[in-house]
Amino acid sequence: MKKHNILLPALFLAATPAFGAITLTKAVEDFDYIYTMDVAPNNQDLDSNGTDDWWDTGVPTVSGGFATNTAADQIFRGDFTGSIWRSVVSDNTGTVAWTMEITVGKVGGTQGTNGWFGIATDVEGPSSAIYIKDDRISIEQGAVDLDFLVGTDFTTGYHTVRIAHDAEAGGYYYWVNGTLLNDDTSTPIAPGNGSFSGSQSTFIGDYGGAISGDYSIDSLSLTSGAYAAVAVPEPSTSLLGVIGVGALLLRRRRA
Cα separation of 186 and 71, whole Å? Predict the structure, then answer.
């Protein structure tokens, strides 16, 4: 469990990206609120407003630093007054920029029509809904979903999903395992799921009959401000650099 001090509003204004674009990055370790699953998020009050952060019923079981679902409809939800979602992320107008990141893995079961894990967030209506499926990522866009990373194996290992809400543009940016799903960091994807329109809520996990499967959440993090994922240097680049320097020294020694 880790909590960081919230930045002053003036600092947020100074750091707000330009309209319709994400220009800043932030490592998840520097997020304002981080749940590392050593204590159940629904038993914590990280924003110190006197209310538990997440809904107290139907939540995944937290043990050994992981939150796992043990039955259908096990979720983290923030659709109640005083939840951290409504106090930090949603101001009922959709004008707050925020970023959410979650690391989750499939541990068994059969996926539903919408996959084995979902995240639906609503701050302005309609909501944003992203689904992890066995072989792709889908973003709800009404009758036809947007599919990404088709053919990728999402049934093994842990996968990190970052969602950044661009308040100025009224859209979202998505990263999965560090890969940007948007065309670029100047093109947000509009919310396209009408199921939770106007509810000022978030649902994380198995929140409906179209999502099923067994999952394990390693961490869940929230921060004010819209931030892109921090790029991780390719190991090969560093290795080639070392090889290049070594070859140069070898040439000099031979000379």
Answer: 40
Tokens coding 114: 């919408």
Per-residue model confidence as pLDDT tens digits over 35-88: 999 999 999 999 999 999 999 999 999 999 999 998 888 999 998 889 999 888
List all residues 6 or more positions away from 219 whose beta carbon is below 8 Å from its beta carbon. 28, 34, 35, 36, 37, 101, 102, 103
SS3 content of the chain, % helix, strand, coil (to 5): 15, 30, 55
Q: pTM for this structure?
A: 0.83
Q: Which is it for the CA torsion 146, 149, 150, 154, positive or negative? A: negative
| 138 close to 130: Cβ distance less than 8 angstroms | yes
Task: Please report the domains of the chain, with CATH numbers, ordered by start residue.
Answer: 2-254 (2.60.120.200)
DSSP state at residue 113 = T
